[in-house]
Amino acid sequence: MPPLDFKDIQDKLSTHFRPLHRSFQFWVRAADIYTGYKVFQLRVSLIKDVQKQEAMWERQHELAAEKIYAMCSDLGGFFLKIAQVLGKPDLAPAAWVRRLVTLCDRAPATPFDTVQLVLEKELGRSIGEIFENFEEEPLGSASIAQVHRARLKGDKSDVVVKVQHPGVQELMMTDIRNLQAFALYMQKTDIKFDLYSVTREMETQIGYEFDFMREANAMERIRRFLYENNKKSPVLVPRLLKDMVTRRVLVMEYIDGIPILNLGDEIAKRGIDPGSKIAAAAKQNILKSLTLAYGQMILKSGFFHADPHPGNILICKGSEVALLDYGQVKDLPDSLRLGYANLVLAMADNDPIKASESYRELGIGTLSKCENELQELLRLAQTMFDSKLPPGVAMLQPFSEDSSIKKIAVQAFPEELFSVLRTVHLLRGLSVGLGINYSCAEQWRPIAEQALYLAGRLKDKDLKTRVHKRHLFRRLLRRGVKD
């Protein structure tokens, strides 16, 4: 009988109990953060001085930010994605943003010897047989995979090799199910929004990210769509090396550029005043390119890249934008695509009646708790689905009694719309970070009109009237006449 391998037994036990330990860690920390806020709400309600209340809230947010940062940093994986969502200026308290923005895409790297084993198993050859050179230090490491720069044998151009972290899928699914249970509790107590449907959609989308063959097909489909529907594609999409794609490895062309988060430093390094017209024009061009690409993908195709966080956006020469990482994509059915096109027109036109009709068409179930229901429905739509917040809203504060989510309870929210919601919020975060307050709904209005017209839902006469009004309004603006 062979001797017992205690290290092997220890490793197996550790692997078996790791999800349980992870769940315990999440619930202990989440409960601590949540109860901290609930106790604080009672304490601050006893203070009548508004300025003192604001100072107390700031201290509470800073305390919570440290705890959230520690949880996301220690647990990693899916919680890095949570940090991406929360670490945005329009969505979370400023103290959270300051702390969490440094955490995005900082997952620990998988050691190179493990990367080599995965690569050689997936591609069926040794690294030396495939690559002229292969940088052991990764370009970056995210929650699901890390990327390395390399060069294929006999080639003159560099490539990017994306390799999945071993064993990450089970842990991330554990995280999502814990989050789903927490979401159910939150929507029954504090936030009157169908959070559970949101987490269900997250589960679906994250599940897709573990299949790089699916990602490769999505990348190729979006690249072809953007290049066929424009004289020049508004964003660069990496070319795929089709014979070097497996479920856990993806090889694509290397695109040279700087992360969008480093744009300010790059502008300063080139000796350009960040407040100059040249810098402002560059930022406008970047946002215009991204907005056009997303408007076409969501409203014209329905198939779109659903993860435009800063780590996936590179700025290349001449303010060109490259869009990376196609693990999260969404294929909207025509009913939702056209329903959202209607909502875009409602938001761009500030039309509360059309907004209410669009809610019903999209299957968003609401329960009013206010007198001015139609205006609040429009305000809620603009808060959720436009990159420019409605008048009087500086950031999303779901706990505030004045928030639209408190006044209009969202009882049903189609899971598939979450990807649109998240995409718009990430675009909003980018616009805030670039210091530009703009409405994607206004930018997307012509694309929405075209989508509805091609579907037979907007007649020739109606389309011509809308285009005429828009041109007239622009002429008035150019003459300095305010509407």
Which tags fit this structure?
single chain, 483 residues, alpha+beta, six-stranded antiparallel beta sheet, three-stranded antiparallel beta sheet, 18 helices, 13 strands, globular
What does this molecule look like?
The strands form 4 sheets. Strands 1, 2, 3, 4, 5 and 6 form a 6-stranded antiparallel beta sheet that branches. Helix content is 57%, strand content 11%. The termini are far apart. The chain is an alpha+beta fold and 483 residues long. The longest helix is centred in the first third of the chain and has 39 residues, at 6-44. It is built from 18 helices and 13 strands. The chain is globular. Residues 4-16 have low confidence and may be disordered.
Offer a concise description of the structure:
57% of the residues lie in helices and 11% in strands.
